[in-house]
What does this fold into?
Amino acid sequence: MSASEEVAPLRHVERLAVRYAETDQMGVVHHSNYLVWFEQARTGLCIARGFPYHEIEASGVWLMVTGAHLKYRGGAAYGDEVDVSVWVSRYQSRALHFDYEVTRGDELLVSGTTEHVWVDVATKRTCRIPSHLVGPFRELAGLDRVTGKLD
Amino acid sequence: MSASEEVAPLRHVERLAVRYAETDQMGVVHHSNYLVWFEQARTGLCIARGFPYHEIEASGVWLMVTGAHLKYRGGAAYGDEVDVSVWVSRYQSRALHFDYEVTRGDELLVSGTTEHVWVDVATKRTCRIPSHLVGPFRELAGLDRVTGKLD
Amino acid sequence: MSASEEVAPLRHVERLAVRYAETDQMGVVHHSNYLVWFEQARTGLCIARGFPYHEIEASGVWLMVTGAHLKYRGGAAYGDEVDVSVWVSRYQSRALHFDYEVTRGDELLVSGTTEHVWVDVATKRTCRIPSHLVGPFRELAGLDRVTGKLD
Amino acid sequence: MSASEEVAPLRHVERLAVRYAETDQMGVVHHSNYLVWFEQARTGLCIARGFPYHEIEASGVWLMVTGAHLKYRGGAAYGDEVDVSVWVSRYQSRALHFDYEVTRGDELLVSGTTEHVWVDVATKRTCRIPSHLVGPFRELAGLDRVTGKLD
It folds into this structure.
């Protein structure tokens, strides 16, 4: 029996301390920084799964950002520690979506999605996901897994 | 005859030179910076209409960001000059949406929307748009105008 | 016997993973980000000593930056983890200096100093260090301690 | 008679509007941003002299930052327009220093220096200034000029 549809994507959580430089004169984190945090969580996700993104780039492909959506419910402040959760919300041969939640304790501060395509660095054209990454990313997306035991 | 529905919102265009610090190792502007550029264009729009945003804040309200959407088609590079266009795409008594286009010559690089609510700085609660700003912002939105002659 | 002069200041080390957004088109971290890392290390130092900087600010004083000096020997890259060390290099009643070293393994990448004065938030004037912080900061600076056992 | 020693270096001034994102919770521009402004002024200086820095990089050399010094006297605020002045303060065959002043009207806010070496992009080693840039940069530095008439 295939359990593909029923298996949730794998979450990675990155804990961050708010940097003073990330605040603005409203006294909370400037809204552009959440995209930077999302990216840091993606970095952490790839490291946790054993294929660091800097190695993916070195192999000749970019996972280029084509879209971003953010919903701001509350603002993180200097002195806060926040958790940035990330998971693959859509898997296609040429595109990936990631979803995110930034929380402070039980409080959801910001949620969002980023959309990406694979790009061949040499030609600067979109391409299919490199074959050696198909398995790991399908697994991240919750596809093709029989068990949830991954860590 | 009311021409409200037929009048386009007023556009403001801010010309920017890409900063070296805004690039990343892909060789183009990091995707988070477009939110900063959008904000700079909003600043310019308010100045052009005669109600600088720092004066709006000083009067006790914030136009707080509650959402953002970006679509990336191409990347600005160091050495480029780009135009960031902004206009009010939705006007409500408690909320405003702005739309944006970043272009390099004829090429559309990035488009986007930001969503905002008015917040009373003293109480940190959402509020209605201050009365003295109703006219200017409705005009920006292309509402309540008989003629298009504004500049 | 006073050992003041012989006691080294206390070091705090903050480990950071380079963020993609921190790189520029040279392929290494943009030189402005080291000031942000220095600040994050100061934040960590204060937390480690039990007087978080956001609480210091909340008590009504700023430790305002009046000068900065950086020497760049090598560049951190995306994929690197670096250690940012910080210690109090000069203690005065109205001023503090911090020194920093950013290392990647055994390699020293960047070193620097930041200079600060205490400022009363209410009056925006310089002031003396708050009395409850004299002890902790003198101790950080390696003054007034008989033993080096602090953690 | 050589007037080399008596000729002042050429100044370039870049006018900037403070960005909201550049402020921090102290209500003024975060101190790291001045390095970004210095860089933007260097970019403007090179453009004004007819050799844009992105073309210098494209020709195979970097003017890499090896040191930076900043003195903060006052803080720029959102709503301010500031002038960032830059000039070559030291010219050597393998190194260049630039000095800066950030002013708001007559008020000097920040001054600084950045130190640079020429680096061959291909080998990542320091090198001499490319021959076609010797004349322009010596002229910027106020060397080898008979008259001050340059613009």
User: Anything to note?
Assistant: The helical segments of chain B are 33-48, 53-58, 131-140. Chain B has three helices and six strands. Residues 33-48 of chain B form the longest helix (16 residues).
